[in-house]
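Researcher: Go.
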Amino acid sequence: MAKAKVESTEEVVVESVETTDAVEGAESKPVKGVARLEEEGDIAADYLEALLDIADLDGDIDIDVENDRAALAIVGGKLRHLVGSDGEVLDALQELTRLAVQTSTGDRSRLMLDIDNFRGNKRTELKKLANEMAEEAKSTGKSIKLAPMNAFERKIIHDTIQELGLTSESDGEDPNRYVVIYSS
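Model: Structure:
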């Protein structure tokens, strides 16, 4: 039923390097080599394939490595119910898949899962929102507080704001954590 397709664009020799996450604080995260991320992708694809088979659902699983993390996409078939109305089912499936990888490898996984391009479409919407809010912050000279968002959504906003030369930060407590965009 489910088929996996692996895409890799580069080889990395360094297996682990410490880096900081400027978006959510000063916590350090190791950067994994492409081979290790591809292994995570394979484990995750096997797990997801088994879930699709159990649920008797059709779908192809694409595996890639993006931004120092394994990225999987399930495409084809009628899978919208696996996303949920606001991505909550997708988030739960992603977390279960991360736990399956962690159980197999012993290491925490940061893999990203997308189904029927939900996250891809959401990324496009959020970049547009960030651009509009950055323009508003620049023109008014005031900080802009956005509605609460999950970590994936906040990261897209932060990255876009940084590309535009402005600053932003997350504030509040989950699940009501939100982004503030500063005018300068």
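Model: Helices lie at 34-54, 88-105, 118-140, 151-163.
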